[in-house]
């Protein structure tokens, strides 16, 4: 029982460390080193606890944060890609498209259009002040 709790605590610490270091180059080797387990064992424990492979988790978190950056900033796509741990525009675009169903530029454009339409609807629905 205490061994299972120890492993769960380790995975929770690993996740917290990954979240704090997503902008750095992360490899399974340095995550394993940080955890104190071998690469193979930390991957096993991580998948058992989360249902995701360690590499998939890191990529997913980077993509979600990159999508947030695309939504909240006007930074160029390459800048967002590099800032979130992707080594090229092509690698980022491929991963982003696979995850979100459209390339980052189109995703941003569609998001901005939907937000503009939503704001217009809210504006038009505002009750008029009595005269």
UniProtKB/TrEMBL annotation:
Ranges where the HTH araC/xylS-type domain occurs: 12-110
SUPFAM superfamilies for this protein: Homeodomain-like
Keywords, comma-separated and alphabetical: DNA-binding, Transcription, Transcription regulation
Pfam families: HTH_18
Xref: InterPro entries: Homeodomain-like_sf, HTH_AraC, MarA-like
Highest taxon of source: Bacteria
UniProt GO MF annotations: DNA-binding transcription factor activity; sequence-specific DNA binding
Protein name: Helix-turn-helix domain-containing protein
Species of origin: Candidatus Pantoea deserta
